[in-house]
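cache lookup: miss for this entity combination. No prior model stored, computing from scratch. Input as submitted by user K.M.:
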Amino acid sequence: MRDAEKKRLREQEKAKERRQKEMIRERRARNREYRLVSGFFVLIFVSLIGYLIYFNVAESETFINSPYNTRQDTFADRVVRGNIVSSDGEVLARTDVSEDGTEERVYPYGNMFAHAVGYDSNGKSGLESEANFSLLTSHAFFLEQLENEFRGEKNMGDTVVTTLNTTLQSTAYQALGDRRGAVIALDPSTGKVLAMVSKPDFDPNTIEADWDTLVSDESNSSLLNRATMGQYPPGSTFKLVTALDYFRKKGSLQGYSYLCEGSITLENHTIQCYNATVHGQEDFESAFANSCNCAFADVGTILGGSSLRDTAEELLFNHSLPMKGARKSSFTLDGSSPTALVMQTAIGQGNTLTSPLHMALITCAVANGGVLMRPYLINSVQSYAGDTVRVTKPSEYRTLMTLNEANLLGNLMREVVISGTASALNGRSYTAAGKTGSAEFDENGSSHSWFIGYCNAEDPDMVVAVIVENGGTGSEAAVPIAGQMFDAYYTVN
Amino acid sequence: MINVIVELSKYLILTLMIIYTFHCFYTVGRQDEEEKKELLFQQLTLIFTIDFTAFLVIYLKTWEFKVVLFYVEMMGFFALLQILYRIFYHKSSFLLLNNMCMLLSVGFIMLCRLDIATANKQLLIAAAASGVALIIPLIIRRLKFLRKLTWLYAGVGVVLLGAVLVLASTSYGAKLTLLGIQPSEVIKITFVFFMASLFSKEADFSTVVKGTVVAALHVGTLVLSRDLGTAVIFFVTYLVMIFVSTRKKSYLALGLAGGACASVAAYFLFGHVRQRVSAWKDPMAVYQNEGYQIAQSLFAIGTGGWFGMGLCQGSPQVIPIVKNDFIFSAICEELGGIFAICLILVCMSFFLLIVSIALKIKNRFYKLIALGLGTEYAFQVFLTIGGATKFIPLTGVTLPLVSYGGSSVMSTIVMLAIIQGLYILREDEDEEFERRRKEAIKRAREGQRA
């Protein structure tokens, strides 16, 4: 009897529980859409937070350092602008504070680092602009900062250590002399810019006084950094691109032969070799070493405009380059371009325009097994006392070509030094490789002198790109400068 | 010396904000009344400490006596609000009230730092609105016919928006204000009431059509007035309310597809939409024109970094319309990115609190109102913060309770009062339920005895 009652009670209990559970389930079902909606909005809020974190980590630096951002200039009220020093420890820019507190920006090397380091009044340029935020931020020891705050004194801004080397920079500067042009040198395995010179130049110490003259003098454009922003026809240095395209299309350079008679005429358009030199029977390698225009015009017609364009664009023509302030190179050929323009473009004339930096970057990829490292000028940032704040880690920018292709182009460039137009670099204590160029820029056949190349061909140490405006052939003006740069590299290292 | 205080206060405010944010989420799950009370009290203490620190810094940096005066007035307002709610509505959600005070505080701090005159105006409006809003929970509780006024809500909305389109003058490229107020802020409330009352009865196809027509009229008029942000908020609220009432995903999909088509059409039809998009894609490329605002905003956010420049240490005043649409950027610059993230989390917990109230209510009409208002709030927060940070194109809406804007503050405070009313209603429901249960038990016992 009592057992039966217990059982009944237990069953009642169970039924009650079941009912309750059902109610909850029902309520859940009724609220399912509400939960979905609130879940969606939670997702939205979380994505907002995620984006804000992403912005602060990845994007904010670009915006902070924008030349339009005048905010950081207010930092100058509390921070003394930091130094810029070279990789070998020389001061390239410093701030002198006089007794009465007035500050003066001093550039001990004057004109030599004008474009690379830049200036800090009448706007900003170069590293003064790029590293503005770091220069006006202090990572001094916090107790010292605190003490300065109590005293109402300014803190010392951080020191920016560049990748630039004073020996290499001064070599390039002296070698260019009074001629216009640019020299840029990079370490292909890291992307470090070792030297960057552009001429004509200016003295950043007196920029305020000279400003009006500099700006109004359009024939010199002294403020323009020709290394990164100059726009020149690439001349025969472009044959590197043509050669790569030929290899990609044919799979091999073997089997190409050409009989050079000093000129080639197709569809009423004639292209001549330099000085109408007759090179005679050539294979691909010797045509490249001789910088034979006729052979490469012929190669151009084999490849056609659209194929050349594909390879050129893979080598970053018509694309922005991975360096702040660098100008894009332009390449205009396509499938419908007339033969005459294809022939001209294949030898580096036509409408193509490029900068020394861009040609140097292509050479860097060749010298580094096809991988282009992101070029950079800031090696590290330190507190004024020398404690490291951050160090730039070398990073791959993009693979421009395969290892095989890089080796192939490397061999072609090596041959240019051994038996071709850059043989002046042969027989030195190091092995060199490169390509010369004479980029015609007017009707009279005057040309800019180009050289791109690297030293220690087996395991490249340094890439240089040299252009001397109106300097004649590559071997006349540019090759000797490159030679001095290579020599200087081995006196330093 | 002052710089040291400013610098230290930065970290103090940040720490307090992090604790407060933690509280927001922690308090929700607590059942124990005593513990809850304790937590809510701690929250209030946190708000008051943040306010004290922030205003002390502003005073030290400006030496303006007006700042002290403002601080005293503001504290008076908060204290009065808390006391009045405890007297008249002891059953209301004090977590909601605390969050409201917190968001208003952040707004007051930034406005006071940017321009004390606007801060004073904002305080006056907030106080007036809160005073009026005190009777709203009572209205919600007593006036049961509110759910029957479907077409009155629709009519008020369409007529007022039409009047703005025809009569208002253009400012910042959009027609917004009529006689000094922004009717669209009021209509945010009537629109939700319309949708809720329409769908509280039925959710069949013809009801959906009716709702769609009225919503299209609202959104269309807003687009023509170039008030894109509000138009998008209405559209999203419409979609959410239709989806929840009909429980059909197909409507949602259809609506989203329609919305996508409409956005593309708007892009090609309206020059100002294209401008917004181009400024969003690359503000630096169009810096001199439409990109300027957003670029300045990003400079501010970037310069602020994680910890901020400290109050009165940055230059947020160079951002155009910083007090309204870009207040978030000013917060990022001076109070820091981490503080800003906490602020987003507080907004999120605010939204979740509203939804949780909606979940617990049984009455369909009130349930839909709570969700509709919550949706409007959440999406507006998304639009303004997303716009200022370049996550999405800029639409030009305010950050509710934080941004300066009389109509916006007023309507948000009214909205929250409505939600308080609903919360109290639910508490009543619970009590009713408890009472009936007890009665039933009593009856059952009596039955047994008999």
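stored under new cache key. The longest strand of chain B covers residues 170-171.
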